[in-house]
Every structure is written in structure tokens, then in C-alpha cells.
Amino acid sequence: MRIFGQHEENTLAQLRNVAARAERAALMADGHLGYVMPIGGVAAYVDEVSVVGVGFDIACGNAAIRTDLRLTDFGPEGRTDLRLTDFGPEGRPRRVSLGRIADEINSTVSFGLGRTNRADDAPVDHPLFDDPAWDAIPAGKRNDLLKKARAQLGTVGSGNHYVDIFADAEDRIWVGVHFGSRGFGHTIASAFLALGQGRAWGERVPEAEVIFPLDSPLGHDYWHLMELAGRYAYAGREWVVRKVVDLIGGRELELVHNHHNFAWREMHEGQDYIVVRKGATPAFPGQMGFIGGSMGDDAVIVRGAIAEPGSEEDTLQKEALYSTVHGAGRVMSRTAARGKVKRIRGGGLDESPHVYRRLPDVLAAQGGTIEILHTLRPLAVVMAGADVFDPYRD
Question: Is the pLDDT of residue 338 over 50?
């Protein structure tokens, strides 16, 4: 069991409980208390998968696009008097203010439950909606879940889910998003949590460990629906991030995309495992990832280090199961955070920067397992307001 960084005892106790049931386990430096398995936890099983390990927001993750735009394409920071009609004749921005662009994102992309804003061209005819895995859902529930999934594809949700415009050290513009499989994934997780406790699909049950052998009927169905939720999340994030790139008049040069709540089939040191990462980013040698900070804080593009075999870094990577942090990590619960001073527009008080660690600190605590390729400073952060209802935020 490998632990990166410093953690509260209740978080470590959760990890020890998980490790007692898994073959291998690790905790990333941004770890904190979760449901049964700590956020930032990684666990490896043999032909088994943990439903609560993957979590309720199946396939939550990040996507970032590096565009061909530069900061000089926008108006001076802080100005809000320029108009969106200041786009040039070819649709490229001509010193349009970032404040106005944030307003346009907020008006175009839907936050919260449904697709309520102007953009209504999400790929609701995506092939994933014809996948045979849908047959694993009880017939009486299937059509309603299909309808919900189509309605929410490409919606960002609330809580710590966001759309950001960033600039890197060379003032190149990036667009980043963070969200998961929305109500579709939440329904699958909740249903199999109930089924694993001997209850009915859709019945509310306590959060408890449920581990399915993959060769069992429930394990087979959960695995295929979990993978379907992963495809759904990828489709939604890529649609949103490309919609925003188009909105600001940019062109896509590079896409970095990864889940951080998921389970994968992987081989580690000659052994086949099912590796569950709950709030942890895959970071195999050379693999790129996008990791966000707290609301309004810097984010990073990282790459799994290519370490010398037998080196300290190589050992750390193996012990981490080739994983790294997924964000800054909370230091204050949502309840405790409410009532504090709010300094950034968008998002609830429980998502303000003061409730999180600093991202540079947790990255440093991961040792030499990753390389930071780009540090991204936020220019415009767009999130759902605290009054936006969304039951799928966790």
C-alpha cells in the first residue's frame, strides 16, 4: 500500500479497509474522505470490480484542447465593454473581452440538469445509444434512462464541474472541461449498489462496499454498462470542449482527455488486474493528462514520467499503479465551506479555492512519477451557480 502526501486518519482508515479486500492499493496526494473508498484512491483486483470504488459519477474526467489562439486575440483582461460582434470577418476573435466570452459560454452551454441553453446539437444520435449493453437495464426502466441520457449528453452539471479558458506560459489559449456521465452514470452506480445488497433496481440503499466478480451476471452487466458510461462521458466532454473552441473562434491543435473515476483492465508487473481509480488520473509512461486546480487556480498538462528501470521514480510509478492526482484535493467539507467569502463568479461557496489544497503541493508530493508539460492559468471560469439544482454533482 503506497501513500503519497499527508492525510487525515479517517481517509487513511478508508484506504486500509479497501486494501484489505484488494490485491494492491495506493492513495494519491490529493486524497480525502469519500464513500467507502477515499477520493484519490487506487485499488487493483483480480477479475473483480468495486461499484462504490468507481463511484456514483462514473467516468468523471477532464478534457483540454490547445487552440491556435493566443492571449493577444482577446481584449485586455478585466475589460467587459467589448461586444461579441467584435469577431472578425472569418469568425476569429478580434480583441473580444474574456468577460463577454464567459457570458457567451454561460448562455450557450448548459449547466445543471438539462439542455436548457442555446446549443442543442449534442450528438444524441451517437452510436453508444444503440449499444447492446442497454439491454442489461430492466425493460421497464430502459426507455426512461435512454431519454434522460439523451437529454443530459453535453450538459456540464454543477458542483466542481466547469468550463475554463486558460493560457499557458507562451500565452497559447486552451479550453478545459470537467464533468462525467451525468444522471446516466449515477443511475447505473445507484442501481448496482442496490442490486449488490439484494435490493431492487432503483431502490435507495446505504453506501456500502459491493464487489462483483466479472464472471457473475451482475458483474458482467455492471462492467458493460460502466464502459458504456465511459463512452458517454467522453462524447459529452468532447462535444462541450469543441463547442467552446468553436465559440471563441479557435481551431483544435491538440486534445488531452482522461477519466479519473473508472475501472480498467491492466497488467502490472506480469499480473492482470482490474484497476479502480476513484479521483485518480492514469499516468503510464508517456501518457498525457489534464489536471485541474481549484476554482480559479492554475491547472496543468502532465505526462507520466519515462523513468529508468529500477530507479526510485520507476518504483514509485509501480507502487502508484501508474496513477497520479486528479486535482488539488479538498481540505474542507462542503458543509464547512458554506458561509465563507466568495471571490469568484460562478460555483457555490463550497467550491471556492480556500476549501482545496494547492495543486503544486500535491503534484510535488507525487515525486518524480509525472512531468509537468504546461501550467495553465485560468482566464475565464464558467460554472453553475450555487442555486442550480443538480442531484448528480457527486
Answer: no
Q: What is the CA radius of gyration of the chain?
A: 21
CB 247 within 8 A of CB 45: no
Residue 265: what are its φ and ψ, rounded to 5°? Answer: -85, 120
Could you tell me what percent of the chain has a pLDDT over 70? Answer: 82
Q: Tell me the residue type at 277.
A: R
Q: Which residues contact 94 (CB under 8 A, 6 or more apart)?
A: 73, 86, 87, 88
Contact 363, 297 (CB under 8 A): no
* DSSP at 308: P
* CA gap 233, 221 in Å, rounded: 18
Query: What per-residue confidence (pLDDT) applies to 160?
Result: 80
Residue type, 377: R
Alpha helices in the chain (DSSP H): 9-21, 51-54, 98-108, 139-152, 182-196, 217-247, 312-319, 334-337, 359-365
C-alpha to C-alpha distance for 116 and 286, rounded to whole angstroms: 39
**Cβ neighbours of 123 (radius 10 Å):** 15
> Is the pLDDT score of 81 beyond 50?
no
User: Residue 295 in contact with residue 160, Cβ under 8 Å?
Assistant: yes
Helix, strand and coil content of the chain, in percent to the nearest 5, comes to 35, 30, 40
Express each pLDDT in 10-63 by its tens digit.
999 999 999 999 999 999 999 999 999 999 999 999 999 999 999 999 999 999
Q: What does the block give as the cell for 360?
A: 503544486
**Nearest Cα to 172, choosing from 67, 95, 81, 80?**
67
Do the beta carbons of residue 354 and residue 291 sit within 8 Å? no
Per the structure block, which three cell numbers stand in for 357?
489544497
Residue 295's CB is within 10 A of a number of other CB atoms, namely 25
**pLDDT tens per residue, range 86-133:** 555 555 555 567 788 888 898 888 887 666 666 678 899 999 999 999
Residue with the three cell numbers 463512452: 231
Neighbour tally for 246: CB within 10 Å: 15
Q: For residue 196, which amino acid is it?
A: G
125 contact partners, CB below 8 Å, separation of at least 6: none
Task: In whole angstroms, give the CA distance from residue 61 to residue 232.
Answer: 12
Task: Tell me which residue of 53, 56, 33, 55 sits closest to 42, measured CA to CA.
Answer: 53
